[in-house]
Amino acid sequence: MKNSKLLLLAVGLSVIGLVGSLILGFSFSSSATGNNFMGMISMMGGMGDMMNGNGETLTNSSVSSLQQKATTGTINKGENSISFTQNTVNLVVLASPPGRSGEYFEIDNLINPTLIVKAGTTINLTLVNEDKELHGFEIVNAQPPFSRYPMMVNNAMFNSFIMPIWGTNTNSYDSSSTTISASASGSYTYLCPVPGHAQMGMYGKIIVS
Ligand SMILES: [Cu+2]
Prior knowledge:
Blueprint: H1 3-24, H2 37-50, E1 57-58, H3 60-69, E2 74-76, E3 81-83, E4 88-95, E5 105-107, E6 110-111, E7 114-117, E8 121-129, E9 135-140, H4 150-153, E10 162-165, E11 173-182, E12 186-191, E13 203-208
Parallel strand pairs: 3-7, 4-8, 7-13
Antiparallel strand pairs: 1-11, 2-3, 4-5, 5-6, 8-11, 9-10, 9-12, 12-13
Helix pairs in contact: 1-2
């Protein structure tokens, strides 16, 4: 390969890395910032795998059975909130399921509900992407409005970050799970870290009391 082509490849990969970091809020470690682009390539490859989600691919009926196993909270439709008093909460969060326009979360048939849990609650959260677009999840210690890139300024709290998952086809949804330790009381926001989604309203409040 000619040097000029090699240079072009290096520039191309740097751009891919930059775009990747903008899209995902990834700060590549120094080992993968251009002077070692083999590291970057392997990271991009690994990212592709991760973006299929770390959980199962679900059908409509397997999503329903997952929802039936979820922890029952007290739903207040007027306040659009769900309260949990349990120490362990199994939560199923749907990302932009069909039936509405825009980007949003749906939990227990509520859109972007306020979640209320006790301090110290363990939340086993499963995100199911029912959309054709990328969606992820994180809890941040910030309040709206959000910029286009909230993940560039707000760190995920409580091990809540879920890497954006590719959108898939109708009745075949990728999913990812994380175990969140809501250890410190406060008023937080859960949001989608994909650029523009939180800005467009893909967020809700989570109160740890
Ligand atoms: Cu999203």
